[in-house]
């Protein structure tokens, strides 16, 4: 009981010091909010709901350039024009569309190449060009998801049509038939096959139906999606800025002889470590509470369906940040050195985490967001606690995940925390 009581006294003392420093409060609470607002405000006005029921009220402006003279380019344009969230604008050339996106008129533009139909007819790979505005990531990524869904449908249909033509060619059934009649027969066969495919889709042998908690719809908006990405991203970044504050605090106490005086008192040395850890964990929780409350109240940011998951991921994030702060404090020799190392680590780990590697897919009115850097960046990101924290928050807040779904992220962050604390205690000196 004495250890707990004295630890709480140490924590209370550190919290008083932190909250007396207005510069620290600005960095820890206002600066991450300003960064999140800077990236999220372009979407703040888009508050119409995107619901999991299949009805969307989004409006994503998209420039469209069709350089293809065949039927598939026109079919793709018609298919995209029928999708409610998209507001299709036409440009006369790819250069004009590029200029419009660069000027901020629309978040993205779709360019259909001239050989689009010919490549599909020949069963050859073809590419549709998507120009994205990097300042409108959420809308551009949502459009990329929609385009991917539509092109997948085209790919399936093209494969079926090519198969029908190949079968007729191999059997020679249409060799003696006039070209117009042959095309009509192929189209009739394609219609029958595609009708059967659609019937199977409508009445599958195994039906999987997704229903959210308590049978309620999950309402998402463009604003909510944007802030569900930016606020966790910058909250995590600035949680690790505590590393420099905590390390400097440890060095200052050593220089002032506070640890030596505490060691002379009839208390266990672990009291100091536990007290400081509790203080800075409390600051991280307060950071998240303030930032998430602002996002939820003012910008439609969803908090997900698992309060326990949010609590758990925040706790292990706080442990990892304070553990790293303790480690830097045990290694640094001066307060200035501790602050510089802590700040450098905060930036390096953040950028190594692949912080902008988001993919937003919109299908039937539902948004699914993934946070997965590609290639070697993925493996580098997994060596940072930031990546696991951001991914955990995204899963909870946007994808409707529960505690068990983010368990790998929680365990990874806990592993970082244990590693940092073990190394810190090995190197820590109380004098």
Task: Show the helix and strand layout.
Blueprint (H helix, E strand, L loop, with lengths): L1 H19 L1 H19 L8 E3 L8 E7 L4 H11 L4 E5 L3 H9 L5 E5 L3 H6 L7 E4 L4 H35 L7 H24 L16 E3 H18 L2 H15 L1 H7 L5 H30 L7 H25 L3 H18 L5 E6 L2 E6 L4 H6 L3 H14 L8 H21 L4
Parallel strand pairs: 2-3, 2-4
Antiparallel strand pairs: 1-6, 4-5, 7-8
Your description of this structure?
The chain is 64% helix and 9% strand. It has 431 residues and is α/β, with parallel strands linked by helices. Helix 3 (71-81) links the parallel strand 2 and strand 3. The radius of gyration is 28 Å and the shape is elongated. The chain starts with a helix and ends with a helix.
Describe the strand arrangement of the main beta sheet, using strand numbers. Answer: 3-2-4-5
- Beta strand count: 8
Q: Strand count, sense and closure of the main sheet?
A: 4 strands, mixed
The Cα radius of gyration reads: 28 Å
Tally of contiguous helical segments = 16
Work out the helicity level. Answer: 55-70%
* Global geometry: elongated
Query: What percentage of amino acids are in beta strands?
Result: 5-15%
Order of helices and strands: HHEEHEHEHEHHEHHHHHHEEHHH
Q: Which regions have little confidence, pLDDT < 50, spanning 5+ residues? A: 51-57, 205-217, 362-366
Multimeric state of these chains? single chain
Mean pLDDT, as a whole number? Answer: 76
Structural class: alpha/beta
N-to-C span: 26 Å
């Amino acid at each position: 009981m004495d250890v707990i009581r004295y630890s709480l006294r140490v924590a209370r003392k550190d919290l008083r010091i932190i909250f007396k420093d207005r510069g620290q409060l600005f960095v820890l609470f206002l600066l991450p909010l300003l960064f999140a607002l800077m990236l999220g405000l372009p979407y703040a006005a888009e508050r119409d709901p995107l619901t999991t029921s299949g009805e969307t009220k989004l409006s994503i402006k998209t420039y469209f350039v069709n350089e293809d003279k065949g039927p598939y380019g026109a079919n793709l344009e018609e298919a995209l024009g029928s999708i409610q969230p998209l507001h299709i604008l036409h440009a006369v050339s790819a250069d004009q569309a590029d200029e419009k996106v660069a000027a901020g008129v629309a978040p993205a533009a779709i360019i259909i190449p001239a050989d689009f139909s010919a490549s599909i007819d020949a069963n050859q790979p073809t590419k549709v060009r998507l120009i994205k505005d990097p300042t409108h990531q959420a809308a551009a990524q949502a459009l990329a998801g929609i385009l991917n869904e539509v092109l997948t449908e085209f790919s399936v249909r093209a494969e079926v049509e090519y198969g029908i033509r190949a079968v007729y060619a191999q059997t020679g059934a249409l060799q003696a038939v006039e070209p117009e009649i042959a095309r009509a027969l192929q189209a009739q066969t394609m219609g029958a096959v595609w009708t059967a495919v659609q019937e199977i889709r409508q009445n599958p042998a195994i039906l999987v139906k997704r229903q959210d908690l308590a049978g309620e719809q999950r309402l998402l908006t463009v604003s909510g999606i944007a802030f569900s990405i930016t606020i966790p991203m910058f909250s995590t970044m600035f949680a690790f800025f505590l590393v420099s504050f905590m390390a400097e605090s440890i060095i200052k106490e050593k220089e002032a002889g506070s640890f030596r005086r505490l060691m002379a008192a009839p208390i266990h040395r672990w009291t100091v470590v536990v007290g400081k850890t509790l203080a800075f964990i409390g600051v991280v929780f307060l950071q998240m509470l303030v930032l998430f409350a602002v996002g939820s109240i003012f910008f439609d940011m969803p908090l997900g369906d698992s309060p326990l998951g949010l609590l758990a991921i925040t706790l292990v994030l706080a442990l990892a940040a304070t553990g790293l702060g303790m480690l830097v404090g045990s290694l640094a020799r001066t307060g200035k050195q501790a602050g510089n190392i802590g700040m450098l680590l905060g930036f390096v780990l953040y950028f190594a985490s692949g912080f902008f590697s988001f993919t937003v897919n919109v299908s039937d009115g539902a948004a699914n967001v993934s946070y997965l850097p590609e290639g070697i960046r993925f493996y580098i990101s997994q060596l940072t606690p930031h990546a696991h924290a951001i991914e955990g928050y995204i899963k909870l807040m946007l994808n409707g995940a529960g505690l068990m779904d983010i368990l790998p992220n929680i365990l990874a962050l806990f592993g970082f925390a244990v590693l940092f604390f073990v190394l810190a205690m090995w190197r820590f000196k109380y004098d």
